[in-house]
Amino acid sequence: MAPIYSRIIATGSALPERAVSNADLEKIVDTSDEWIRTRTGIRQRHIAADGETTGDLAFLAAQRALEAAGVKASELDLIVLGTTTPDIIFPSTACLVQQRLGANGCAAFDVNAACSGFMYALGIADKFIKSGQSKKVLVIGAETLTRMVDWNERETCVLFGDGAGAVVLEASGEPGIYATCMHADGGYKELLWNPVGVSVGFRDEPNHGVRIKMAGREVFKVAVKTLDSLVDETLEAAGMHESDIDWLIPHQANLRIIEATAKRLQMPMDRVIVTVDQHANTSSGSVPLALDYAVRSGKVQRGQNLLLEAFGGGFTWASALLRY
Ligand code: COA
Fold first, then answer.
1. Could you tell me if the CB of 254 is within 6 A of ligand 1?
2. I need a labelling partner for 112 at 20 to 30 A (CA). Which of 119, 143, 238, 315 fits?
3. Over the stretch 159-207, which tens digit does the pLDDT of each residue have?
4. Does pTM top 0.70 for this prediction?
5. Does residue 120 sit in the same domain as residue 207?
């Protein structure tokens, strides 16, 4: 039997209107534009307005992807949404978006893999298509991470932003996604986490104790090392070499981490999509936002090979190598 591939037929994205510069943050915490730029590459981030939710951004990104694909919401047979900042505890944000799109009836669920959420969602959707279970799938990565940032803590508040991206996948005889990889190691949970919740309980602290805690330097070291082995594994799974990759579309957490991965792949930075300067770290939103930017700006062309990867809390890490 001829293999079935998942093909990305279109992309979409959405950002909150308000952009906040590093200079704006200098007024809130003891930081500087120079410190933020040199350590992270970030120049600005978008921050959701009061009342604007992950689901709102996901819905807009999904609408734009469906419109670009020429696919009606009623044609979808699956929605997978990566997020660690769902609108409410349940129903899932995927269900909320499904209803707003008018795709009622298809399967819809969220995936929480922190910053690897979109890459996990894409890997899962690919398996549904490859198994013959699904033909048209909407995959979304969406976050309002700034809702769980402690605005008094300069170590973390400068790093994050809000946003969403989406892709429409279709079953095809042509490639398509060649390989996806997914991993996790819960042994690292305390290096990057938000340790309150429904079952553990909330705390008698501002924002009920909901805030990101991170050991930045340790996260940095593990991320670089882990992404090195992830790109090796992904190339091997796809039966490809570094030179076969046209574009690296990495998780946008830190420009120095991105540069280290590019170096490992022997790729010049002009073949790497960088949006961290504009968006900061939007967690599950980051890779699909970067992909949509790459497609709509005309950088990525049909027939090119893309390597997508992400790393996040858990730790989790995941990738996809595909022909666009
Ligand atoms: N502005 C100014 N100074 C800051 C600051 C800020 N926003 N945040 C921290 N500092 C200070 C610290 O207080 C510390 O000061 P000290 O040396 O006097 O104690 C110093 O800067 C820390 O420097 P250092 O540890 O060398 O920073 P770094 O080069 O490791 O950069 C990160 C810090 C967080 C940018 C970096 O470690 C990183 O990006 N880690 C990965 C984080 C990440 O990507 N997380 C998400 C993964 S999905």
1. yes
2. 238
3. 999 999 999 999 999 999 999 999 999 999 999 999 999 999 999 999 9
4. yes
5. no
